Amino acid sequence: MRMHDNPTINYPDYVWPEGKRCAVVFSLDLDAESPFLWISRGQTVQHLGEIEQRRYGPRQGLARVTQLFEEYGIRGSFYVPGVVAQTYPDLLPFLLTRQHEVAHHGYYHERLEAIPVAQAEAYLVQAQELFLAQTGLRGLGHRAPSWEMTPDFLRVLARRGVSYDSSLMGFDHPYQIDQLVEVPVQWMVDDALYFRYTNSTRDKTHPANPAAVLESWIEEFEGMREYGGLFMVTIHDWISGRPQRLRMLRKLIEHIRRDPQVWWARADEVAAWHAQSPNRERFQVAAQGINTHFETEKD
Ligand SMILES: [Zn+2]
């Protein structure tokens, strides 16, 4: 038996609409200053360096990214923390009038694994109420801050009427985890890894050369195209709204556009496709943590 014939070792190919070969989603996590607020919670912060760098996002970066998307007719998926929508109340309506998707991304960009699930649920409800007040929409999608998730919170999302999640990486195309459709992300195609730099101790590297990142992302797109997966790009308002990265994004878009076999979609459309397609029955997993209370050797 070839490995491909065993569905528990190598899953069958994913089916895209209209016979397309792969899908592309451009997503933007509209963090602005929210992760800084979360990390500094309980303190009064007066040093403006990182705060102003992040506010560049809603002030300038976002408009430039959406303008670029508009030039190419791209409708993106925008994940917005509650506190960002609250601080900049024009943001969600602005995105909706341009046919973009808006979805949840925590309230204070809280890390789900670091707080009790009841608190995480309270933040989700607070965000849902705010989004409903600002847009009239409910049942939106969700992406976890910093892409961390717990089995308990997946259950909360399903119970609170969230339409899909986009935080995990268990397949390179959509799948079902417990009750929820998962539209997977991946670190390799996340701008923060290469360009996030705030001159703080949390920085891992200096900003990368966009030409090298472009080459890497094109390779990933070509590979994903070969395997028929989802090429999910994740960028940030305050990181990719900068000129050299916008130029890089334009080149990436130009490259992908040459391929007529690509399905350009928003993440909510990808999730909806998954839920009503034959893929639904084939890619289902249970959300299970790992029990590490195995017996250890005593010296
Ligand atoms: Zn984020």
The CATH class label is Alpha Beta
Strand content: 5-15%
Q: What's the domain count?
A: 1
Bound molecule types: zinc ion
Which oligomerization state do the chains in this entry correspond to? single chain
Low-confidence stretches: none
CATH topology: TIM Barrel
User: Whole-number radius of gyration?
Assistant: 19 Å
Shape: globular
Say which CATH homologous superfamily is assigned. Glycoside hydrolase/deacetylase
Helical stretch tally? 12
* N-to-C span: 45 Å
What does this structure look like?
With 299 residues, this protein is an alpha/beta fold. The protein has one domain: TIM Barrel. The protein is built from 12 helices and 8 strands. The strands form 2 sheets. Strands 1, 2, 3, 6 and 7 form a 5-stranded parallel β-sheet that branches. It has a 3-stranded mixed β-sheet with strand order 5-4-8, with helices on both faces. Helix 5 runs parallel beside helix 6 and helix 8 runs parallel beside helix 10. The N and C termini lie far apart (45 Å). Bound molecules: zinc ion. The site of zinc ion has 5 residues, from loops.
